[in-house]
Amino acid sequence: MVAWGAATLAFFLLYLSGDPVDLLLPLDASPEARAELRRAYGFDDPLYVQYGRYLWKLAHGDFGVSLRSQEPALPLVLGRMPATLQLAGAGLLFALLLGIPAGVLAALKKGSFLELLVMVLALLGQSIPVYFLGLVLIMVFGLKLHWLPISGYGTLRHLILPTVTVGTFVTASIARLTRNGVLQELRSDYVRTARAKGLHERVVVYKHALRNAAIPVVTIVGLQLGALLSGAVITETIFAWPGMGRFVLLAVEQGDFPVVQASVIVFALMLSLVNLAVDLAYLWLDPRVRYA
Amino acid sequence: MQKRWWVFLAAAFLGLAFARGDTLVIAQGVDATTLDPVNHQETPTGNVTANIFDNFYRRLPDGSYEPWLGEAKALDDLTWELSIKPGIKFHNGEELTAEVLKFNFDRLLDPKKPLKYSTYFKPIKKVEVTGKYTLKVYTEKPFPLFLTRLTYLWVVPKAYIEEKGADYFANHPVGTGPYKFVRWVKDQEIVLEANPDYWAGKPKVKRVVFRPIPEASSRVVELLTGGVDIITNLSPEAVPTVEGSGVAEVRSVPSIRNIFIILDVKGEGPLHDPKVRLALNYAVDKEAIVKHVLGGFGVPVGCPLNPYMFGYDEELCKPFPYDPEKAKKLLAEAGYPNGFTFSMSAPSGRYLNDRQVAEAVVGQLKQVGVKVDLRIKEWSSYVKQILNRKLDTDAWMIGWGNAQFDADNTLFTLLYGGTVEGGPPQTKFSYWKDPEFDKYVLEAQQTVDQEKRKELYKKALERVRQGAPWIFLHQQKDIYGVAKRVKWQPRPDELLWAFDMELVK
User: What share of chain A is helix, strand, coil (3-state, %, to 5)?
Assistant: First the structure.
C-alpha cells in the first residue's frame, strides 16, 4: 500500500515536470535523435499507458533502467544504501549518546549554568542549517587543523565529520525533549512515591523517570529519522559520501526518472519500517500499550 | 586504556599525513556514468575513458586534429581509406586490426542498439575490410566532417566485448590507451594504472585516481589540504584562496564555448533592423564585462566562432569596439533616438557568472537609452522553451560549446534560416534569415575540399558581421585548481589526459 502510494506520487510528480528527453541530449541533438529516444523510453505514449506499464513492471520487480548509465535502477539505488544507513545510524547513535545524557543532566541541574549551557547549545544545534555546519566543520577540522579528512569514504575517520553534521539537529531535539520529559516525570506522583520508599535517587531517575520520559523521545527519534535521511542528502553532497541521498539529488537534476522513482519507493519503505520499529519500541517501553 | 587512546590518535594523525606519492588524484563534480567511451554525453565520463582508450584521430591543444591510431584519406567525395598503425595492442593482448575497427563502426551504426556517439557517424553507409590494417568507409553523401568526427572514434576491443558482453565491458573496460583500468567503486573512486607497454610511450604518472566530489567548496579544501591534485570548474571567487595557498595554483585556458545573446526572436519590432542590432553590439563593453564580472576569465569575441574552430577568421571575428556614441547614432538613424525596450532571457548558474553577465549587459544598454526587461530562467524549463521555440522574450543568452571544433556546428546549427529552396528548414535555434549566408553554409556542408570550405565560411562570416544577428560577448575560460607538483597545462577541449601530465618533486 505504502509502496503503491509512493510509486504513484513519484510517477505523477515527475511527469508533471515534463519528459526528460530534452535534458538527456545535448542542445544540438537532432530532432530525429530526440524522437528516437522518446520512442525508446516510451515517453510518446499517453500518460495512462505509461502509468499502467510502470505499475505492471513494478509489480514484477522491474524498476526500469537508469536513463543515464543504462543500468537497472533498483540495484543502483540499493548499492548506495549501506553508506546512507551507516551515516544515518552513526548520526542517530551520536545523537542518542550525546542528547540523552545532556538532557538528563539539564533536568537534574535545573536552574544552574549547566542547564543554560545545554539549552543554548541545543537551540543552536536545532537552528543551524546542515550545509552551514558541514562547511564550518570542514574549514575548522580540515583546512585549519588538518585533523580529519573532509571528503570520501572508507575509514572511521572519514565518518566523523559527516556524522556530527547529520546528527547535530537530532541531538539537539533529543536533548531538549529528554530534559522536558524528565522534568515532568520528576514532578509526578510515582516519583514522589519512589523517593518516599527510600529508593536511591539514581534508581529513581534512570529506572523510573527516564523510562517514562523515553516515550516521546522514541517518537521523535522515529520522526527524526526522516530528517536524518533528508539531512543525509546535503551531508553526502558536501562530504562526497557515496550514499543514496547524493545519488538521488543528481538523478533529480538530470531527469533520470527510473532512479528517482526507485529511490522514492525505497525511502518510503524504509520510513514505514522505522515507524513499525517505533511502534514495537512503545510495546517494550510502556506496558499499557502492550495490554491495550 | 589511556595509552591505547594515544596510540590510536597518533595513528590517526599519521594517517592524515599519508603521501599521495606517485598517485595523481583528480576531483570532478560527478562520477562517470559508464566506462564505455562512446556511450555517454558527459565530459567527466569522457575524462576517465580518454585515459583508457585511444581515438582514431586525436585533438591537439590548439583545436586542430592529427592522425593517432591510424590515418584516413579521401579517395573521392564518398569514399575514405583508413589505415591503422600496425602492432597496437589492447590491455588484454588483443591486437588492433581492420576487423576490430570495422567492429567499432558496426557497433556505432547498429540501428537496433544506438549508442550515444552513433549520431556522429550517421552519414556512413558501409565499411569494408581491405587488408589486415586497411579498410574503406563509404558515405551516403559528401562527409567533410569525417576527419573531425574520427576524434570521437574511441576504439574498443572486439573479442573482449564479444566474449564478456557490453554491460560487463562498460564496467570493466579494456582499451589501447595509456592507462589500464584497475577498479571502479561507484561514487567513490576510479583507479587507473600506467600501461608500461603503451604504444606511444610510457606514461610518466604511475597511478591516476578520479574522485567525484559534488560540492565545489569541498573540492577547493581537498586541493588545499593535499587530498587531490587537480580540481575542475573552480569558481572565480575561489581564485584568490587557491593562489594564496602556496600548495596549489590557478590555471586556465580559453574554452571552446562562446557566450552570446540571440536577438530578434519574434521577427518584428526594433530588433528586426540590422542597424539596431549593430548599435547594441557597439553599446556593450565586452572588455569591462570580462575584467569585472568574470575576473579576467574570458576573451571578448566579435563573431559566433573562436580561434579553435575550423572556419574562424581573425579579421571578421574582432570584437566590436565599445563605442556608445556610435551606438546612439545608429539608433537615431534607425528611428529610435530615445531608445526602446526589449525583453531578454538568461540562465543562472549554467555558465561562468551568467546572471551577472546578463545584468551587466542590461546596465550598459541602459546607457544608450535601451531598456531591457531581464528574465532569469531555471535551466530545465529554459531548455524546453529553447527547443520548442517557445521563448517569451525578444532575445536570449546562451553558451555554445561546439565540440566539433568546426564552424558547421555553430553557423549552420544556430544561424541557418532555411531560405534555400529544396534545402533543410530553418534550424530550431535560428531566428535570422539571410539567403546569401544560408547558401554558403549549405554549400560548405557538401564540400570535402577544406580550402574551399574555409572560403565559404569566410563569406558567411562577412554576412554575420553585417547582419549582427546576435550580441557577441566573449569566449569563456575554463578554470582549474592544480597542485604545484603537477606539470600540466589545461586543454580547450576540457580533457584531463594524464598522458600529458607529470609529477615533479
Answer: 80, 0, 20
- The pLDDT tens digits of the residues spanning B154-200 come to 999 999 999 999 999 999 999 999 999 999 999 999 999 999 999 99
Q: State phi, psi for B299 to the nearest 5 degrees.
A: -135, 120
CA pseudo-torsion sign B333, B339, B341, B345: positive
Closest CA to B279 of B462, B430, B471, B473: B471
Residues in chain A within 8 Å Cβ distance of B16: 146-149, 157
Question: Are A240 and B212 within 8 A, CB to CB?
Answer: yes
For B60-67, which contacts have Cβ atoms below 8 Å and span 24 or more sequence positions? B61/B489, B61/B491, B61/B492, B62/B307, B62/B308, B62/B492, B63/B256, B63/B307, B63/B308, B63/B309, B63/B405, B63/B492, B63/B493, B64/B310, B64/B405, B65/B147, B65/B148, B65/B150, B65/B151, B65/B405
Q: Which residues pair with B181 in a beta bridge?
A: B192
Answer for the pair B27, B232: CB distance below 8 angstroms, yes or no. yes
Three-state DSSP state, B465: helix
CA B183, chain centre distance (Å): 27
Nearest of B292, B266, B238 to residue B474 by alpha carbon? B292
Distances (CA, A) of B454 to B243, B465, B468: 41, 16, 20
Q: In a 10 Å sphere around its CB, with 0-12 CB exposed, 13-18 middle and 19+ buried, how is residue B267 labelled? A: exposed
Asked if B242 and B266 touch (Cβ cutoff 8 Å), the reply is: no
Cβ atoms of residues B398 and B260 within 8 Å: yes
For A53, the 3-state DSSP assignment is: helix
Sole residue written with cell 495490554? A291
**Dihedral in degrees, nearest 10, Cα atoms A167, A170, A174, A175:** 60
Place of cell 576510479: B190
Question: What is the rounded distance in angstroms from the CA atom of residue B417 to the CA atom of residue B432?
Answer: 6
Which residues face B345 on adjacent strands?
Answer: B375, B396
Residue whose cell numbers read 549549405? B442
Beta partners for B194? B179
Q: Does A82 touch chain B (CB under 8 A)?
A: no
How many Cα neighbours within 13 Å face the side chain of A37? 20
Query: What is the identity of the amino acid at B259?
Result: I
Hey, what's the cell of B329? 547614432
**Distance between CA atoms of B210 and B166, rounded to whole angstroms?**
23
pLDDT in tens, B439-489: 999 999 989 888 999 999 999 999 999 999 999 999 999 999 999 999 999
Distance from CA of A278 to the nearest CA of B (A): 32
Location of C-alpha cell 510502556: A286
A-contacting residues in B 369-428 (Cβ below 8 Å): 380, 383-384, 386-387, 400, 409, 413, 428
Nearest 5°: CA angle at B75, between B71 and B79? 90
User: What is the tens place of the pLDDT at every residue in B204-232?
Assistant: 999 999 999 988 889 999 999 999 999 99
Least confident of A229-233, B336-340, B376-380: A229-233
From the CA of B414, how many Å to the nearest CA of chain A?
9
Torsion sign across C-alpha atoms B189, B190, B195, B199: negative
User: φ, ψ for residue B137 (rounded to 5)?
Assistant: -120, 125
Distances (CA, A) of A193 to A184, A209, A211, B98, B490: 15, 12, 16, 93, 77
CB A99 within 8 A of CB A170: yes
In A107-182, the DSSP E strands lie at: none
Chain A with chain B: Cβ pairs closer than 8 A: 94
In whole angstroms, what separates CA A286 from the centre of its chain? 26
User: B226: part of which helix (H) or strand (E)?
Assistant: none
What nine digits make up the cell of B58?
586525436
* 3-state SS class at B492: coil
Report the Cα–Cα distance between both ends of chain B, in Å, rounded: 41
At B283 the three-state DSSP class reads: helix
